[in-house]
């Protein structure tokens, strides 16, 4: 037995770090599987046709009723009429025939003397014979000479009007399409247009007879278009879907053949389908367990492999699942009790005790679980509204908890949650197709208010237990980072001692200024230590690290020098990211210069090239977004400016600090910070007091504010 343990123990020692992910994952996976089993398992029924249902049965799945869909497709296809296509060739041919007739009439009339009144009838007969000889055989064979004689007897202006009326009427009729069964109606339409004209009776009669010749079939059955229309009609038929949760039969209703087929289709009459939801639940639990295990591993890694944060995360997650499960027992489709669930309390505790990232990721997992848990025990149905509500509630709590200073912050967060909950609930009501009374609106908003208050009470009540179990994490982490033995701080001290001294001075000033306006002084101090860490990449290019008369910028163009100076913010941010530093510290490194101008090199470049673009000599930013970063931005400019003075007087210090703050305000560098003008005034006085106690006589430095 002892030999066996001697073999097993080394195995676990080698994989000790993996257990930080495996054990929490197994625990949460098992909890998820057990709690959701009732929500996904499908009940089956032994029902016969034409029996009376003893209970209301709903569909556990969303599925297409193909038989009903096929029937609707057949009906839609049968309803499509035959399609005909109009032959433009036939239309153009008939219009050309009419045009040919009138052109020939005009030609014959021009060739003969129409003023002769002797034997005029014989003359018109001869002209008609001549006219027929000019026309196409199809025209001359189908139109009688009497029509030609009548046309030849008409004056030219009457013929022109007749041609216009007849051609227009014929074209309109032919464009509408003439099929075999409606040729006569087409002829009638042309005759009607002729009858309504001002032409004389003889000319109207001739044109009416001409219509019998001109109107022919020009619309023919189009097989391809008809087939395509039927295909399109079949495509437009929406499938008949039985939705998950849809009532198929109510209690006391007779089971008809149609209802029985639907019950059979959704699988509630067979025991075979029960295994699949359980397999799906197992897969869901495995996926959630995997992500939870991964997050647990990351937490343990960031906390020096301490097991306490993992235990806290598992307990809080189990508590979240337990709260949702208890609440789901009292929930059904007729109420909205899920709105009362104080899930935001878990997000608040995770943010305070672990970190923002973990709180956000687990909030997403809890929201996913809520979609399954609040499905009213209808397998296959998801309650999307509950998932969205829980997600907004938790994310809002995380965002509103900006600064963790005392427990009163949780109460302030609850006020913000009330607004968020009310907004989401009103959104749900407005998007719903159901009609709600004002009583319902106020009732649901009351549920949201209750959830916010319960979240605050629950968080405040549980927080002391976890605080004693884990300790205060945020300040501890900051104090750990402020240790001079930190690798990055050692690197800064050894490779850029001037910058290190500058950072310490900025830390002292900024911490005092932050505390004067209620900001986080410890965060400002630690952020100041690391804000210029990027200068260690090329320390000799920054003036505080240079030996006298040894400035490498003298050998470089102004633009290249400016790029080196500007790059230290991004270099510092990258170094901090590589060392897994907190986001707040990285933001200070990126934002402490805002988008300020490297004025010294910009002026030199401007002298060489008047077309120099000022934006090329500005830091990329972003602008400071917190009070701490904005204060560090001010102190970072003030400290070297005052240090450059020889024997600075209090008046000089006041003047420089005031000028620098005014310059940053006018340049818009503090636009994104939450600092007020009153706070800036307080900061100015505090910085001046700190500098007056620090600085005495100093070596005169050139005023290169951009080269800090």
Q: Can you offer a commentary on this structure?
A:
The protein has 708 residues and is mostly helical. Helices cover 66% and strands 2% of the residues. It is built from 29 helices and 6 strands. The strands form 3 sheets. A two-stranded antiparallel sheet has the order 1-6. Helix 15 runs parallel beside helix 17 and helix 18 packs antiparallel against helix 19. The protein is flat. The two termini are 68 Å apart. Keywords: Membrane, Transmembrane, Transmembrane helix. Pfam families: 7TM-7TMR_HD (PF07698), 7TMR-HDED (PF07697), HD (PF01966). InterPro entries: HD/PDEase_dom, HD_domain, HDIG_dom, Metal-dep_PHydrolase_7TM_extra, Metal-dep_PHydrolase_7TM_intra, PgpH_phosphodiesterase. It comes from Oceanobacillus neutriphilus.
Give a quick precis of the structure.
The protein contains 29 helices and 6 strands.
């Amino acid at each position: 037995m002892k030999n066996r343990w001697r073999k097993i123990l080394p195995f676990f020692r080698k994989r000790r770090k993996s257990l930080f992910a495996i054990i929490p994952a197994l625990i949460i996976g098992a909890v998820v599987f057990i709690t959701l089993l009732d929500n996904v398992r499908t009940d089956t029924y032994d029902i016969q046709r034409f029996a009376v249902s003893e209970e209301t049965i709903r569909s556990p799945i969303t599925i297409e009723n193909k038989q009903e869909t096929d029937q609707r497709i057949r009906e839609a296809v049968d309803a499509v009429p035959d399609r005909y296509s109009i032959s433009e060739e036939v239309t153009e041919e008939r219009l050309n025939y009419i045009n040919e007739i009138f052109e020939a009439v005009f030609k014959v009339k021009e060739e003969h003397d129409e003023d002769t009144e002797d034997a005029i009838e014989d003359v018109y007969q001869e002209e008609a014979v001549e006219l027929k000889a000019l026309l196409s055989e199809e025209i001359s064979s189908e139109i009688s000479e009497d029509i030609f004689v009548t046309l030849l007897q008409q004056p030219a202006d009457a013929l022109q009007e007749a041609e216009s009326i007849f051609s227009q009427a014929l074209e309109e009729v032919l464009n509408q399409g003439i099929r075999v069964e409606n040729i006569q109606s087409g002829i009638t339409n042309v005759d009607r247009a002729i009858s309504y004209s001002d032409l004389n009776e003889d000319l109207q009669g001739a044109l009416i007879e001409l219509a019998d010749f001109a109107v022919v079939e020009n619309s023919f059955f189009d097989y391809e278009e008809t087939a395509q229309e039927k295909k399109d009609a079949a495509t437009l038929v929406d499938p008949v879907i039985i939705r998950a949760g849809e009532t198929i039969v109510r209690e006391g209703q007779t089971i008809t053949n149609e209802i029985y087929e639907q019950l059979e289709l959704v699988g509630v009459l067979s025991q075979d389908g029960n295994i699949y939801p359980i397999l799906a639940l197992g897969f869901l639990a495995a996926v959630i367990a995997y992500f939870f295990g991964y997050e647990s591993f990351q937490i343990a890694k960031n906390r020096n492999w301490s097991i306490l944060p993992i235990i806290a995360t598992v307990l809080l997650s189990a508590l979240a699942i337990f709260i949702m499960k208890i609440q789901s027992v009292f929930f059904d489709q007729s109420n909205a009790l899920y709105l009362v669930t104080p899930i935001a309390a878990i997000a608040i505790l995770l943010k305070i005790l672990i970190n923002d990232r973990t709180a956000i990721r687990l909030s997403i997992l809890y929201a996913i679980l809520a979609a399954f848990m609040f499905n009213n025990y209808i397998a296959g149905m998801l309650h999307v509204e509950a998932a969205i509500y829980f997600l907004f509630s938790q994310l809002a709590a995380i965002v509103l908890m900006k600064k963790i200073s005392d427990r009163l912050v949780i109460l302030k967060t609850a006020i913000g949650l009330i607004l968020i909950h009310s907004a989401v609930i009103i959104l749900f009501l407005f998007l719903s197709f159901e009609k709600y009374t004002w009583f319902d609106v106020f009732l649901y908003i009351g549920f949201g208010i209750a959830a916010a208050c319960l979240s605050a009470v629950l968080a405040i009540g549980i927080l002391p237990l976890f605080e004693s179990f884990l300790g205060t994490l945020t300040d501890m982490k900051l104090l750990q980072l402020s240790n001079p033995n930190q690798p990055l701080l050692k690197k800064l001290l050894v490779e850029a001692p001037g910058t290190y001294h500058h950072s310490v001075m900025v830390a002292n000033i900024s911490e005092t200024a932050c505390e004067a306006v209620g900001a986080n002084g410890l965060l400002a101090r630690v952020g100041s230590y690391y804000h210029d860490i990027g200068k260690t990449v090329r320390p000799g290019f920054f003036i505080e690290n240079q030996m006298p008369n040894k400035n490498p910028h003298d050998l470089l163009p102004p633009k290249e020098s400016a790029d080196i100076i500007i790059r230290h913010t991004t270099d510092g941010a990258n170094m901090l990211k590589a060392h897994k530093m907190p986001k707040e510290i990285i933001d200070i490194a990126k934002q402490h210069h805002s988008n300020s101008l490297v004025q010294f090199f910009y002026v030199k470049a401007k002298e060489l090239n008047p077309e120099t673009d000022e934006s090329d000599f500005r830091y990329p930013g972003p602008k400071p977004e917190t009070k701490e970063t904005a204060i560090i931005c001010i102190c970072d400019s003030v400290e070297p400016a005052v240090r450059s003075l020889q024997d600075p007087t209090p008046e000089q210090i006041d003047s420089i600090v005031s000028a620098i703050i005014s310059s940053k305000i006018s340049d818009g560098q503090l636009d994104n910070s939450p600092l007020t003008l009153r706070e800036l005034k307080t900061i100015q006085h505090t910085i001046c007091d700190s500098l007056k106690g620090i600085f005495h006589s100093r070596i005169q430095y050139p005023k290169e504010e951009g080269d800090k």
